[in-house]
Predict the structure.
Amino acid sequence: MSIQAPTTRRLKAVVGPLAFSTLGIILSLFAAVAVDAQPRTPGRVVAVFPPWWNAARVVGAAGAAGDIAGAGGAAFIVILRGDPATLNQRARTAGAWLLLDPALAGACARPASEPTTS
């Protein structure tokens, strides 16, 4: 008769709290970045929509929130401008998950194309 060591219980006892702690740290960092990146000019924001939305749905929602001033590096990121009193609320109502300052959202922007010389 062989007796198996209870390694599975020890592993579960370590992995659960470790995963919970790691998730807490990641969420805290995300919250800190999101607070620091809040739009400084309420009339111009970067709106981040759900990534699974197609481009047509993002453009429709963004157009309902304000004027589209540009596009981000991904199809679900759009730069909006509009009435400073209502733009943030309208973007959130349209489905935006996150609103960022366009100056701090450089990583979201498409790279500028090289000018061609003829």
